[in-house]
User: Which sequence fits this backbone?
């Protein structure tokens, strides 16, 4: 069945709200039906919207200083601000509140890569977490690190509780954390550390994931010391704090490097929270855009925290005592909002998962659910597709009765994977929430509500409170009202967790999000509204591609390949992939002077793959690289990616209009090369 046919069919399949949720005790926050959602939603938009947000902000967060102004600014001016006079501290809201009222409550459950190992500690109560955060905060302000309010601190850590503690310690003292996903290469780390100007980096000796050791400290050393070649310069990092994860051998720079476990013993275990203005930056997180340079998306304190807390509460219907398992990495926005901030702001336990869905066996997720009594799981469709392929036999033996909500994020979930998730994992008793959002939105924007929204497989359904998504005609920018329409997705009203700027590049922020359709926030995604008013996300319509839920920019990969001495030109495309959603395919032409043995093409292709790993990281490596005599181009020299895409998709005989193509003869050579490699 084609993708379109699948979607057509699933548009008509509607799954009712599971009775497990509507009959739950207590009843769901929003339920028992779509009418209950509509009523609540209406209050959150339009005239009463400010009052709605203000009330939620007061009841959800603890403010050291109350706000008077709810919102200010506009998309057009790019000056959106929320809860302006308010003062608060993120960690007081995430940790102290619960540590004081209920110190033994579980805050963090650590599920280490090897499930039979027990690195200590495996759990943190809120009181223990407060102690750990405060101690580290005191280390950061000590004379070795001298971190003060407003400084940026780069964090390059694998998925252990230290990653959460490090981010919270920064927030405790008003430092801005910049977490760099621990799969990035030394060059990528260097670029990001340099861009955000961190003097301090927090890392670990090594990391472990899926049984493999990752040399985190070595990567940081390489990043900080310069990588040789033309640029021998370091990046101005003065101090590096190192977590002992494996005890493996590491290089050491005396006077710069310090062990975390030794330093925290030397400082007091309480540190008063620094009161921040609502609009002070909380963190920077790099993401890919449509140019080669990554964007440092900036989120501020009050608005971001409010949306993190509220979306977690309503989208997952969380209750006191819940154990929330988001399987993403804290190095991406999903982890920031739904491993770190969302769960802790709600005072529940968050699971820190260090492993992969298939390590040591494909039962790993479900063993984890059974072991800890996980109540909500949140993962990427790519994991669901992989586990589905490996078979329900890995799911069935494990007790999943604690689960109530199954979340999906990062890319569209195809109806088959959705149905497997719903039926095999959830036994038809759990709500599946297909949540659409972005690094820039900070929190979930379009989503079912578990106790209220009848579900359609593969459909993100309806807006979260306070959001007004609109579908536009891409060309005219005209809003397409009513049902059964398709176009580009934009958001009409500012919400508290919208990114405020791109670090050091506000112009790019305006250019990317605010100018394409003046007065609206442009998402870069295509979307449709079906006959029932449900929103379906169609995926990116810019040069961003999505591989296993990882957001990559084609031009970033092209720049990486272009750095290879032999490469003249490249065209990178994303194609549909059964397992990873999209896959990266790269077309490369070589410089005429580059001496290259045609018999040795495999070695060259391997080298080019390594080049991408070196510049970005292993997760960005192309699935296929084709060395071709020329790229398909228009007469004005524009690369025809559409043509390359069709050839890879096996539609080389249906290339459509080629009248603008400069040299149609190149097509045969390209087709031949693709046929050889696929
Ligand atoms: O294309 C959309 C896709 O992921 C993009 C955002 O990527 P990132 O900033 O890395 O954040 C990922 C986690 C929120 C979006 O522009 N995307 C995200 N969620 C979905 C999705 N596409 C379809 N359905 C989703 N539920």
Assistant:
């Amino acid at each position: 069945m084609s993708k379109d046919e699948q979607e057509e069919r699933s548009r008509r399949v509607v799954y009712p709200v599971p009775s497990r949720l509507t009959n739950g005790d207590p009843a769901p926050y929003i339920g028992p039906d779509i009418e209950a959602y509509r009523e609540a939603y209406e209050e959150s938009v339009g005239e009463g919207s400010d009052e709605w947000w203000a009330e939620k902000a007061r009841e959800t967060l603890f403010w050291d200083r109350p706000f008077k102004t709810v919102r200010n600014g506009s998309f057009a001016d790019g000056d959106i601000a929320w809860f302006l006079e308010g003062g608060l501290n993120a960690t007081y809201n995430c940790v102290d509140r619960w540590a004081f009222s209920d110190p033994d409550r579980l805050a963090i459950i650590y599920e280490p890569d090897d499930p039979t190992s027990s690195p200590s500690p495996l759990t943190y109560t809120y009181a223990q977490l407060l102690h750990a955060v405060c101690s580290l905060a005191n280390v950061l302000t000590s004379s070795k690190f001298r971190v003060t309010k407003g400084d940026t601190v780069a964090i390059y850590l694998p998925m252990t509780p230290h990653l959460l503690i490090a981010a919270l310690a920064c927030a405790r003292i008003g430092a801005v954390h910049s977490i760099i996903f621990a799969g990035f290469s030394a060059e990528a780390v260097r670029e990001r550390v340099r861009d955000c100007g961190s003097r301090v980096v927090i890392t670990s000796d090594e990391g472990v994931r899926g049984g493999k050791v990752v040399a985190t400290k070595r990567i940081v050393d390489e990043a900080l010391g310069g990588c040789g070649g033309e640029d021998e310069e370091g990046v101005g990092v003065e101090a590096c704090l190192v977590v002992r994860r494996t005890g493996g051998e590491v290089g050491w720079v005396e006077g710069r490097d310090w062990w975390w476990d030794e330093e925290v013993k030397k400082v007091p275990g309480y540190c008063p929270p620094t009161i921040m203005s609502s609009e002070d930056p909380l963190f920077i997180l790099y993401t890919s855009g449509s140019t080669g340079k990554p964007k440092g998306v900036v989120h501020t304190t009050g608005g971001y925290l409010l949306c993190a807390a509220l979306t977690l509460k309503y989208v997952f219907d969380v209750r006191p005592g819940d154990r929330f398992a988001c399987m993403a990495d804290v190095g991406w926005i999903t982890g920031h909002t739904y491993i770190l901030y969302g769960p802790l702001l709600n005072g529940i336990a968050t699971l820190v998962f260090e492993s992969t869905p298939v390590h040591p066996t494909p039962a790993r997720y479900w063993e984890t659910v059974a072991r800890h009594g996980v109540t909500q799981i949140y993962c990427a469709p790519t994991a669901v597709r992989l586990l589905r392929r490996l078979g329900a036999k890995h799911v069935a033996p494990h007790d999943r009765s604690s689960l109530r909500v199954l979340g999906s994020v990062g890319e569209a979930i195809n109806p088959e994977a959705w149905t497997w998730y719903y039926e095999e994992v959830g036994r038809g008793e759990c709500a599946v929430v297909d949540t659409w959002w972005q690094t820039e939105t900070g929190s979930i924007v379009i989503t079912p509500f578990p106790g209220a929204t009848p579900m359609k497989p593969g459909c993100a359904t309806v807006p979260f409170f306070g959001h007004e998504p609109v579908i536009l005609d891409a060309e005219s920018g005209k809003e397409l009202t009513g049902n059964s329409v398709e176009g580009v997705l934009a958001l009409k009203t500012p919400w508290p967790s919208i990114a405020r700027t791109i670090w050091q590049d506000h112009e790019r922020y305006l250019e990317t999000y605010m100018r394409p359709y003046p007065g609206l926030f442009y998402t870069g995604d295509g979307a449709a509204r079906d006959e029932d008013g449900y929103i379906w996300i169609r995926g990116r319509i810019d040069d961003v591609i999505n591989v296993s839920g990882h957001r990559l920019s084609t031009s970033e990969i092209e720049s990486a390949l272009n750095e290879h001495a032999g490469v003249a030109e490249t065209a990178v495309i994303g194609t549909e992939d059964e397992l990873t959603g999209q896959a990266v395919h790269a077309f490369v032409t070589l410089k005429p002077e580059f001496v290259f043995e045609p018999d040795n093409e495999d070695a060259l292709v391997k080298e080019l793959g390594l080049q991408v790993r070196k510049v970005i990281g292993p997760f960005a490596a192309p699935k296929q690289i084709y060395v071709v005599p020329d790229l398909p181009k228009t007469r004005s020299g524009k690369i025809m990616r559409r043509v390359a895409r069709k050839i890879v998709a096996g539609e080389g005989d249906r290339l459509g209009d080629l009248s603008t193509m400069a040299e149609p003869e190149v097509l045969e050579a390209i087709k031949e090369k693709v046929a050889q490699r696929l």
